[in-house]
Amino acid sequence: MSVLPIIIAPDPMLKKLCVPVDAVNDEIRTLMDDMLETMYAAPGVGLAAPQVSILKRVIVIDTSRREAEPEPMQMANPEIIEASEELATYDEGCLSFPDQYAEVERPARVRARYIDYDNQVQEIEAEGLLSTCIQHEIDHLDGKLFIDRISALKRNMIMRKMKKLKKSKAMA
Ligand code: NI
User: Fold this and answer.
1) Is 69 annotated as catalytic?
2) What domain count does the chain have?
3) 32 C-alpha to center of ligand 1: Å?
4) What pLDDT is attached to residue 15?
5) Whole domain around residue 120: which residue ranges?
């Protein structure tokens, strides 16, 4: 397994539409393993393939609490098949936006379908942080970022900070 470089916003890679995988084979399992290692190293609770420059519909998530046993989830071709009318707000962050957070409103509960690590179709009902995380990561596969779901004012503020961060990194 290896830790992959994470794309930092703004970057055109984060705006691309990802293609479904045909099956979860050894190649995709290796990608999932590397993505999990990258996510844990960051550390973060979710990571989508385009964040490591792979334009495939693959995400990994682990929302277990830090002191608890790890609960890694690997999902290929994930899709929301049901969403509650009730909404919930979370202070979201993203590994492509270091140190930036914003409150995002999304359906409180979702049912998702995906292909798991063993190439089996699975369905999961999620609420709380897991629900938010699944929706945030699926958004990435459609080139959509959490800042696209907040006010223009807050979005511009975050983008200014990100551009500054990239500039200072480029000069270092
Ligand atoms: Ni993200």
Assistant:
1) no
2) 1
3) 16
4) 98
5) 12-89+107-145
